Amino acid sequence: MTASRVDKYVDNLIFALRMRNVPGKEIGQIVAEVEAHVAESGEDPAEAFGRPREYARTWARNAGHRQSRPELVRSVLGIVAAGAGGSLLGVGVIGTATGESVWRLHPVLAVLAGIIMMASGAFALPKTDHVIDPRTGQEFERISRSGRRAMLITGAAVVAWLIAATVLAVVLG
């Protein structure tokens, strides 16, 4: 069993647990148990626990984690603001490329407004608690890697949408 394979499994597990709203303290305990089992048995984590998404699903279902009402409202507002900002950013980029105004705004202002709305949407999202390794009392190093992964996925989606919107604007004239 290679360390990189275990690290990849744990990264995917942390990401899947975060997406299912499992608290950081419990994520730390789950990850510690997975790593301890793999270290003792030498078994592949996917064989021992199943795919990370499925394993995370069982933990979230068994623990019954749900967002509180204020967290849910913040999440919805953050997602709506980020989506509206991304749309405004995309339309502003298209307006800049074609030289047309966007809802009577200069295209550059639309781009700036879109960026500001996307940033405010990101700040509106509820903050998550830290994932602490119960064996050391320190935060897991790989958390930053899973955060970068989430940002990369989101950024790639925004860039793909901007490219598709620009191509459609140029083709449709």
From TrEMBL:
The keyword Transmembrane applies. It comes from the Bacteria. Pfam families: HAAS. The chain crosses the membrane at residues 76-99, 105-125, 150-172. Keywords: Membrane, Transmembrane, Transmembrane helix. This is Uncharacterized protein. It comes from Phytoactinopolyspora halotolerans.
